[in-house]
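Worked problem 6 (solution included).
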Amino acid sequence: MVDLVIRDASLPDGRKNIDLLIADGRILAIGPGLAAQATAGETIDASGYLLSPPFVDPHFHLDATLSLGLPRLNRSGTLLEGIALWGELRPTLTREALVERALRYCHLAISQGLLAIRSHVDVSDPRLVTAEALLEVRDIVSPYIDLQLVAFPQDGYYRAPQAASALERALDMGVDVVGGIPHFERTMADAAASVTALCRLAAERGLPVDMHCDETDDPQSRHIETLAAETIRFGLHRRVAASHLTSMHSMDNYYVSKLIPLMAEAEISVIPNPLINIMLQGRHDSYPKRRGLTRVRELMDAGITVGFGHDCVMDPWYTMGSGDMLEVAHMAVHVAQMASVEDRHRAFDAITVNSARIMGLEGYGLEPGCNADLVLLQARDPLEAIRLKATRLVVIRRGTVIARAQPRVSTLTLGTDTRTVNGADYAPFSAGPSPSPMHKD
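Solution. The predicted structure is:
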């Protein structure tokens, strides 16, 4: 007797007709032909559709999400106006409003199969109402979402009065990760000093580091170099993530040929944010116009772990967004020109296993003993999932179904001809039409 059986699933690694047995919130067994051997409380017929570990967003701003229009809209659509708008909104924030908006977004995330989020928390305001609110949210959503919080000095670790002390108080309150934003300090010297101070703090406290780094078009921005060097100096290998790195799209190729091996030596992870990066960067260009995404393929080729972040949804910086990590990967595939089959598999990894590795998630994956956290997609492989931004048919957390959706199927009436159209049946090498997944108790 097991709690849940999933039969006839396709897996991201290419295996087909696979069954999963789930008991006590974990994957008990995985392989072909298992469903016939088990009695289950519930059976889900995947009908050949793709079963994946849940999506993971390693870079988000949960304190700002869904605040679009408060106190006004970002008319220029620029990063700097967004920061100024947030500075106007921040003094008016209340714990109650922050919790309400963050929980609404978490509900959206669950519906999209997004069950792990790393959120930056602005600690520039010494009231720390943002930290208080998101710590409360972390407790509320813990049965459903793995939520990590980053102490983020939005206005600069040295530039913002009391930011340094507020950051430490946020860590004392239980915030998980040390953040930073060196390119927003007043001088290059202050920026380098902030990286050193924050890496030292993380080493002393035994915490990870995740810095907004070189989020600029300036090809002379060199803070990732400093971060890599300080990672090595303080022995923080595999505990440091550099987010954005948009300056790398403008850097000289010779310098990058030295920089990427240094990053690989430090075992730094990289978190580009494709939607936001291409929207906010290159604003001083006419044409040719730079698009701002870092050198994704080159970093992956060097063995560096790359995870894609959503960053923002309907906030002062970004008026769009849906909580859909497949939308993030879809944009990355286009902007980074990840056209090969291998590239698109790597893009899927960047919103699943790579980002789980960056967050240090335990029990994540599709192997016996892993947590039974899963999402069934209306697609038959990772490439099709990205192409279609596939419907999440079933979302499972610790072996319990927490979200369901109907397949996206249209019924056409063309004269006397009536037929259904399922986008998942249009892949050139598809096994052909399959019935919609059926659920039975």
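Discussion: The chain has two domains: 2-53+365-440, 55-359.
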